[in-house]
Write a structure and sequence with these properties.
Chain lengths: 277, 369
């Protein structure tokens, strides 16, 4: 018979190993990608795959000579931050009214908003493409900002709404009695109190925008193309160059990976929707 | 001056009427306590006065000015919430000065007022702390401080002490009474606690189902409840009600035969009653005396007793099965199941007619006329 203490430590051990296994499985492709980016094209194709080799920077140098990485990175940055800002400007007032002035239809409105995420984006590709064409938004950063804002808005509203729901209504009413206007109530009381939830919403939106590929591939060509489009351009008709593709992918992922790693605490809190406090 | 007048106020949510026409006058400097069963609309009325809810119909006047449609901030009222509702991201002093800084008061002025409130509430050493780092009682004092600094015309309290433990509640109750004297302010106070209502109030308003049942001083409500509801609501332990019927009644007395046996002649004006009418006799625990079984025709059997030290609350069962409470001396030694009898103090008994209205004392209606 195991003692209670032994059972507990056994359980911790098993669960811990499972978590590590899962994490390693998820991390492995990224690790392999980074590894491959330092190989030559021949080594990249070698069977069995090589774990030890003499690393080379030739892939990175090739990318630097063939395309302007910073042009694409700048586009990614501008589009991600632009649409996150726009999204927050829309999501905060929407969530405020839903969380604190609830009507009988609020819950279904929220669900309906979220259900738009279940639609396959390709279903609306043609109408949006044509709309963008006539509006002159094709291959513009503004165009992508608009699309990204709209596709992420349901999730952002939902997350901000969840964050606001945790705040007792009394506090806002107290502010109202203290003489705060609606703007002051939101900016000086509501936002500072819910800054944790807002930060994770912003983070998630940045990550989703940074990684978005479907719309950027279809709506941009060069001027407004973000990093995801750059990566795609390396899977070209000349054939697949695994090492170069890995190098460009590494370059595309690196900023957001580092950013996400720095902010992981916020992310965990926000994504668990208040389950972890 | 801060006189508050409420005229035929009604409020409904989604078509169900919660406040069903309330008329009320609250005078300057008065401490008014709202009591009533849960869900009768006390908080709703308070929120209507504060402007946090819109009225369905009716009017609220403050100092003769109609404030029914005025924004909450412009009404010059301050509210203290049951949950304190402190701003968690601001220090105690910022919490208290928020209203003043929104109103654009100058720094020196704000600091003076916050200092003053902190002195009154003994919060001086906590001014830089965040609400998280305060105890329940301290949070409550900050919430009150936030109201004080604004010098509002009326203070509104919604069960401000109900989240505190018993000892702290007694202490805060005293502090509130002192505060009321010191600030000389008009205060409206919602509570479930009988003792708070009786000790703090100049005037108690008893609500039931969205209506006012009776308004009066605590002792007035205790001694002269207008109806059975108020009689049962005010006083702890509750007044006992015994069913019975009228044997004889005239303007100077009513003879009642109780369902549990005895007959009593009460000195009340029974001119509206006739023999055979159903009535209810109300008697408070403190107006009953336990005697040996053969001393009185009001036979009972002792149930459990609660010994509180100074008093004993002894539960007794009548022969027709009604359970009543008797306040007995602290050293009362009656045993469970023992036979005994009760002697009611007839001068303090109340009689209610079939509609629950209290029968007046003889000559009371003549005096009023
Ligand atoms: N915003 C609202 N929407 C719908 N119904 C409401 C709303 N606010 C209050 N009510 C209803 O109004 C009634 C009175 O509520 P209120 O909070 O005023 O009661 P109360 O007397 O303060 O009770 P308690 O003593 O339990 O605090 C309740 O039945 C409640 O369900
Ligand atoms: Mg209430």
């Amino acid at each position: 018979m195991l003692t209670l203490k032994q059972t507990r430590s056994l359980r911790t051990l098993v669960l811990g190993s499972l978590a590590w296994l899962l994490a390693l499985t998820l991390f492995f492709p990224i690790f392999w990608m980074v590894l491959t980016s330092f190989k030559t094209e021949v080594e990249a194709f070698a069977t069995p795959p090589q774990l030890f080799f003499s690393p080379t920077l030739e892939n990175y140098l090739h990318i630097d000579s063939r395309s302007d990485y910073f042009h694409f990175a700048w586009n990614s940055l501008v589009i991600s931050f632009g649409s996150t800002l726009a999204g927050m400007l829309l999501a905060v007032p929407a969530a405020y009214s839903m969380a604190f002035f609830e009507t009988r239809r609020t819950k279904s409105t929220l669900l309906w908003m979220l259900s738009t995420k279940m639609l396959p984006p390709v279903g609306v590709l043609v109408p949006i493409y044509l709309l963008f064409k006539s509006a002159g938004l094709l291959d513009t950063r503004l165009g992508l900002v608009i699309v990204y804002t709209l596709i992420n808005l349901p999730i952002m509203v939902w997350m901000v709404y969840t964050a606001f729901k945790e705040i007792p209504k009394d506090i806002l009413e107290a502010a109202r009695l203290d003489g705060a206007t609606t703007t002051q109530e939101i900016c000086r009381v509501l936002l500072p109190i819910s800054k944790g939830g807002l930060a994770s919403t912003i983070l998630l939106s940045l990550i989703l925008c940074w990684n978005e590929a479907f719309w950027s591939l279809n709506l941009t060509s060069s001027a407004a193309a973000p990093l995801t489009a750059l990566v795609a351009s390396y899977s070209s008709p000349e054939g697949l160059f695994w090492a170069k593709l890995s190098a460009v992918s590494t370059l595309a992922c690196a900023p957001i990976l580092i950013f996400g790693w720095l902010c992981q605490k916020q992310l965990v809190r926000g994504l668990s929707f208040g389950a972890v406090k | 001056m801060s006189d508050l007048t409420i005229k035929n106020l009604k409020k409904g949510f989604d078509g169900t009427e919660i406040i069903k026409g309330i008329d009320l006058e609250i005078k300057d400097h008065e401490f008014v306590v709202f009591v009533g069963p849960s869900g009768c609309g006390k908080s709703t009325l308070l929120r209507l006065i504060a402007g946090l809810e819109e009225v369905t119909s009716g009017h609220i006047h403050l100092d003769g000015q109609d404030i029914t449609d005025v924004a909450p901030a412009k009404r010059n009222l301050a509210m203290v919430f049951q949950t304190y509702a402190l701003y968690p991201h601001m220090s105690v002093s910022k919490n208290m000065s928020f209203a003043l800084s929104l109103a654009g008061a100058d720094k020196a002025e704000i600091e003076r007022k916050v200092k003053e409130a902190a002195r009154i509430l003994e919060l001086e050493h906590l001014l830089e702390r965040k609400p998280k780092a305060l105890s329940g009682g301290q949070r409550q004092r900050v919430a009150i401080g936030r109201a004080i600094v604004r010098h509002p015309k009326v203070f509104l309290f919604d069960e401000p002490l109900s989240n505190l433990d018993a000892a702290l509640r007694v202490q805060m109750r005293l502090e509130l009474a002192r505060l009321h004297k010191e600030l000389n302010a008009t205060m409206i106070y919602v509570t479930h606690d009988q003792v708070e209502a009786m000790t703090l109030a100049d005037k108690v308003v008893v609500f039931n189902g969205g209506r006012v049942e009776q308004v009066g001083s605590p002792l007035e409500l205790y001694h002269h409840p207008l109806n059975q509801f108020v009689a049962g609501f005010i006083g702890t332990p509750k007044m006992a009600f015994l069913g019975g019927s009228v044997k004889a009644a005239d303007a100077s007395g009513v003879t009642v035969a109780l369902a549990c046996g005895p007959e009593y002649c009460l000195p009340l004006d029974g001119s509206a009653l006739k023999a055979g009418d159903r009535v209810t006799l109300g008697v408070r625990p403190e107006h009953l005396q336990i005697a040996a079984a053969e001393h009185s025709p009001f036979k009972v059997r002792l149930d459990v007793s609660e010994h509180l030290g100074a008093d004993t609350y002894c539960y007794v069962r009548t022969e027709s099965g009604e359970l009543l409470t008797v306040r007995a001396p602290g050293d009362f030694a009656g045993q469970f199941g023992e036979r005994a009898s009760l002697i009611p103090d007839l001068a303090h008994c109340h009689l209610f007619d079939a509609d629950g209205r209290t029968l007046p004392k003889p000559g009371a209606s003549a005096r009023a006329a």
